[in-house]
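Hey,
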Amino acid sequence: MNEIAFDLEHQPSYASLILNLQANQTVLVEAGAMAAMDSHIQMKSKMRGGLMKSLGRMLGGESLFLSEFTAVGKPGQLYLSPGVPGDVQHYYLKGDGRCLIVQSGGFVACSPTVEIDTQFQGLRGFFSGESLFMVRASGKGDIWFSSYGAILEIPIEQEYVVDTGYIVAFEDTLDYSVEMIAGLSFRGLMTGIFGGEGLVCRFRGQGKLWIQSREIFSLINFLNPFRPTRSSD
């Protein structure tokens, strides 16, 4: 189900989102995501929800301002490209009270009827090594989010375990706790250190979870030995 017609191209490595706006239809977009558009589409930058909510979105890894695009008078196409090479996923909020939680920096675009806020992760976010804040989407309408690498959708019925660096989004019907890969114990700590794994999230409940096929910090660690360094001579 969707209200705004769209197409996804070049998935999953370099996904681009094409929004086919109807006459006078509006969409909210993360600042800097617009790649191209028809000339009659108008753009405005807004601190949606006021200063405090805008600052909250910044804590969640998003921009202070959201860009509002409107196809004035006739249909038009809007091309969006996330900043990180990877995939884009669509989700429809039904307005039934269910919310979507998205990783920091993962928001791409949404219907103007969707409320974008932040959710504080508390100690779970601190100990997982991820952001203390995540994006929380509520209301009714379309939302698109992105990842580094391909996005895999996993329906959860009871429990599921995911490395903290691979979480993209999940429905708020799921709860989770952070723990070592082999449990909170000395043996689990040794397994994490020598096995190359660390903290994981154990999801519980019923709902959908989206994970990414790659983890950007692993890429950074791989590239680090190759970066140029200044000689001491």
